[in-house]
Design brief:
With 198 residues, the protein is an alpha+beta fold. The protein has 2 domains: 78 residues, Immunoglobulin-like (Sandwich); 108 residues, Neutral Protease, domain 2 (Orthogonal Bundle). 21% of the residues lie in helices and 32% in strands. It is built from 4 helices and 12 strands, in the order E-E-H-E-E-E-E-H-E-E-E-H-E-E-E-H. A 5-stranded mixed β-sheet has the order 8-9-10-12-11, with helices on one face. A 4-stranded antiparallel β-sheet has the order 1-2-7-4. Strands 3-6-5 form a 3-stranded antiparallel β-sheet. Strand 9, helix 3 and strand 10 form a beta-alpha-beta unit. Helix 3 crosses helix 4. The longest helix is centred in the middle third of the chain and has 19 residues. The two termini are 32 Å apart.
Length: 198
């Protein structure tokens, strides 16, 4: 996968931005939208899950295949989706749950360190832009990262961000030093999380 601005599907990962796969119907932009995400056929994908900030419809479990809902086309288009096997972490920043999804081949990921570091980044930004309430303008936020051998980039969305990084940039268990690559990755997360238009 080389970009978070389009759509991609192979035997290892699926990813799409709504603008790449959902056509807008003229005159229906404000109508509620439902998308049914089904697993690939075959046993090779039995451990795949779904990562998105879209709301789960009744009967669909978070990170499971099934039906997801959006209030309108804009909301549908602004919630990317990652399919596949991934590491999952979570933290709460000023009362708002933030999830971390890392896909791609990653060995000995230090998720505890990543959670702690991203929590500090998010809390600082929430305090800066929401000084009175100290609450993010979303109920839940998802950092989605695809780790590759060579790549870098990101795209912000209203309740999530889609990122690509070098797998060597992620923190590794037992290696407490802060590498230039890890600092660059945290900077990318911070840049894409940074509120616009607040």
């Amino acid at each position: 996968m080389s970009s978070v601005r389009a759509a991609h599907l192979d035997d290892t990962i699926g990813f799409f931005n709504g603008t790449s796969v959902f056509l807008a119907v003229e005159g229906q932009a404000n109508a509620p939208c439902i998308v049914d995400i089904q697993p690939p056929l075959g046993g090779a994908h039995r451990n795949w899950r779904v990562a998105t900030a879209l709301s789960e419809a009744r009967g669909t479990k978070r990170y499971g295949f099934g039906t997801y809902e959006a209030a309108n086309y804009d909301e549908l288009a602004d919630h990317p989706v990652t399919l596949g096997e991934f590491a999952l972490g979570a933290f709460t920043a000023h009362g708002v749950k933030h999830d971390i999804v890392i896909s791609g081949r990653v060995v000995n990921l230090d998720m505890n360190r990543l959670q702690a570091d991203l929590k500090r980044v998010c809390e600082a930004q929430i305090a800066l832009f929401e000084p009175r309430t100290k609450k993010a303008p979303v109920d839940r936020y998802v950092f989605m990262t695809v780790a590759v051998s060579d790549g870098y980039g990101g795209l912000e969305h209203r309740a999530s961000t889609a990122l690509i990084c070098n797998r060597s940039d992620l923190p590794v268990q037992g290696k407490p030093e802060t590498t230039d690559g890890y600092r660059t990755y945290l900077g990318l997360c911070s840049h894409e999380y940074f509120p616009r238009g607040t």
